[in-house]
Design a protein that fits this description.
seven-stranded mixed sheet, two-stranded antiparallel ribbon, 20 helices, 9 strands, about 55% helix, binds 6-phosphogluconic acid, pentose shunt
Length: about 475
C-alpha cells in the first residue's frame, strides 16, 4: 500500500495531473487499458518522482493507501458510470472517487447519492486549464462531500495554480457544485471567445493585418484586458501554416465545434431561470457557424456594397478594446448571477468569493478583471449581480460610450457582433427601472386571461380587453 493517489484514464489531462502531483512529492499510480499510455506516463515522469502505470484496475486499487483516493478523467456520460461500476467491487467504505471530467452536474448529483448509500464518497471536480494547466497548475473546482474534500485537499492545493501564493482551489459547495461551477465557467468561456472573435471581425474589416492584430492583442494583454484568452489570441495571429505560406488562422474553417458545456449553461440558466444572454448568443453563433452552405447562399442574396468606417484606426482599436472589456464584464456578471441563483435554488451553497478567487489563476477565463470582482465580493459576499457593485459600475461606465458607438458602427457595417449587442441589450434592460414588459403582460391577459399585477393597487387583475 504505497501510493497516495490513483488515476483512471491516462489521456492528456489524466497523465498531466498525475505528473503534476508526482512533482509535488506525492506517489501516484495510473490505470489505463492502453499499455502505451501507461508507458508514456512512466517515461514522462520527472526523475526521482514515484509514478507507476498499470493496465489492471484491481492492481492499482490494491496498491493505494486507505482511504483510497481515485480520480477518473474519462469522457462524460456513460463512461463515468462504467468506471464506477468497475470500481465498486474493489473499493471499501470511506474511499473517495473523484470525477475530474466535464460531467453534467445532474449526473454528478445522481452519482453522489448512489455512492453515499454505499458509504463511498463521490466528488465532482471541475478542472480547467487544458494540457499545460494540468501539468503546471490548473484551476480546480471541487464540490461534494466536505469531509472527502479534506482527504484530497493537500494534493489539490499542491498541484493547483497559485496566485500570490494562494492555490486556485477551494471547496466550492455541496453535491454537484464543482461541476456546476465548471459548467458556468465554460459558459463564460464561450461568451468571451465569441466576443474576442467579434473584436477580430471588426478589426479585420478595418484592414488590420495579422501582424497588426497580434500587436493590438498583445498590447491589450498588457492592460485592462489582461487575460489568458487575449494572450493566446495574440499568439494565434503569428502562427504560420506549415502546408502553405498563409497565416494558419486564415486557412482554418469557420465552423466552430463544441462539446456541449456552453449549451448546458444556457439550458440550465433557463431552468432556474437566470438571464445569461451573452452565453446563449455565443452558443447560437457556434451553431450558426455550422450552416456554411446556407450562409454562402444568403451572402449572395443579400450582397451589397460594404459600409466603411471614417473613424481613424487608433480610435477604432480603442473602441473595440472598450467594447470587449464592457461585454466581458457583462459575461462574467451573467455567469456569476447564475451561480448566485443556483446556489440558493439547488441548495449547493456555492461561495462566490471563493469561486472568483479560484478562477484568478490556471483556468481558461482567468483575467485581471477577477481582481476587481474579488474586491466586489470582499465588500458584499452576497452580491446577486456584480453590476450592483460601485467599483464595477465605475469601470462599466468608463467604457459604455465607446461600446455604444462601436456597436452602432458594426450594425451599419453589417459585421455580426451578436455577443457585443447582446451584452449591451442586457445592460440596458438590467438598468431599466421600468421595462416595456407591461405590454407583454397586457397581451398575455388579452389573449389568454393570464392576469396581471398593477403598479398602484395590490392584487391580481383580469380585463375583458377590446370591449370598450
Ligand atoms: C477548460 C476548458 C476545457 C475544454 C472545453 C472546451 O476549462 O480547460 O473549458 O474543459 O477546452 O470542454 O469546450 P468546447 O469543445 O465545447 O469548446
Amino acid at each position: 500500500n504505497v501510493f497516495d493517489f490513483g488515476m483512471i484514464g491516462l489521456g492528456v489531462m489524466g497523465r498531466n495531473l498525475l505528473l503534476n502531483m508526482a512533482d509535488h512529492g506525492f506517489s501516484v499510480i495510473g490505470f489505463d487499458k492502453d499499455g502505451a499510455k501507461n508507458a508514456a506516463l512512466e517515461s514522462a515522469a520527472t526523475p526521482g518522482t514515484t509514478v507507476k502505470g498499470v493496465s489492471e484496475l484491481a492492481q492499482m486499487i490494491e496498491l493505494l493507501q486507505r482511504p483510497r483516493k481515485v480520480m477518473m478523467l474519462v469522457p462524460a456520460g456513460q463512461p463515468v458510470d462504467d468506471v464506477i461500476a468497475s470500481l465498486l467491487p474493489l473499493l471499501e467504505k470511506g474511499d473517495v472517487i473523484i470525477d475530474g471530467g466535464n460531467s453534467h452536474y445532474t449526473d454528478t448529483l445522481r452519482r453522489v447519492k448512489y455512492l453515499r448509500e454505499k458509504e463511498i464518497h463521490f466528488m465532482g471536480i471541475g478542472v480547467s486549464g487544458g494540457e499545460q494547466g494540468a501539468r503546471t497548475g490548473p484551476s480546480i473546482m471541487p464540490g461534494g462531500d466536505q469531509a472527502a474534500y479534506e482527504h484530497v485537499r493537500p494534493m489539490l492545493e499542491a498541484i493547483a495554480a497559485k496566485v500570490g501564493g494562494t492555490p486556485c482551489v477551494d471547496y466550492l459547495g455541496k453535491e454537484g457544485a464543482g461541476h456546476y461551477v465548471k459548467m458556468v465557467h465554460n459558459g463564460i468561456e464561450y461568451a468571451i471567445m465569441q466576443l474576442i472573435s467579434e473584436s477580430y471581425a471588426i478589426l479585420k474589416h478595418a484592414g488590420l493585418t495579422n501582424q497588426q492584430l497580434h500587436e493590438v492583442f498583445k498590447t491589450w494583454n498588457e492592460g485592462k484586458l489582461q487575460s489568458f484568452l487575449v494572450e493566446i489570441t495574440a499568439d494565434i495571429f503569428l502562427q504560420m501554416d506549415d502546408q502553405s505560406d498563409a497565416h494558419l488562422v486564415d486557412v482554418i474553417s469557420d465552423k466552430a465545434g463544441s462539446k456541449g458545456t456552453g449549451k448546458w449553461t444556457s439550458q440550465d440558466s433557463m431552468e432556474l431561470p437566470v438571464a445569461v444572454s451573452v452565453i446563449d448568443t455565443a452558443v447560437a453563433m457556434r451553431t450558426l457557424s455550422g450552416y456554411k452552405d446556407e450562409r454562402v447562399q444568403a451572402a449572395e442574396i443579400y450582397a451589397k456594397d460594404g459600409y466603411g468606417s471614417s473613424t481613424p484606426t487608433d480610435e477604432l482599436v480603442q473602441e473595440v478594446q472598450d467594447a470587449l472589456y464592457f461585454a466581458t464584464i457583462i459575461s462574467y456578471a451573467q455567469g456569476l448571477a447564475m451561480l448566485f441563483q443556483a446556489s440558493k435554488d439547488l441548495a449547493m451553497d456555492i461561495p462566490l468569493p471563493k469561486v472568483v478567487s479560484v478562477w484568478r489563476g490556471g483556468c481558461i477565463i482567468r483575467s485581471s478583471l477577477l481582481e476587481i470582482f474579488t474586491n466586489a465580493y470582499t465588500q458584499t459576499s452576497e452580491l446577486s449581480n456584480i453590476l450592483l457593485n460601485q467599483e464595477v459600475a465605475e469601470v462599466v461606465k468608463s467604457v459604455e460610450e465607446n461600446t455604444r458607438s462601436l456597436i452602432a458602427f458594426a450594425a451599419k457595417a453589417e459585421i455580426p457582433v451578436a455577443g457585443l449587442m447582446s451584452s449591451l441589450a442586457y445592460f440596458d434592460a438590467y438598468k431599466s427601472k421600468r421595462m416595456a414588459t407591461n405590454l407583454i403582460q397586457a397581451q398575455r391577459d388579452y389573449f389568454g386571461a393570464h392576469t396581471y399585477q398593477r403598479i398602484d393597487i395590490p392584487g391580481t387583475f383580469h380585463t375583458e380587453w377590446g370591449q370598450q
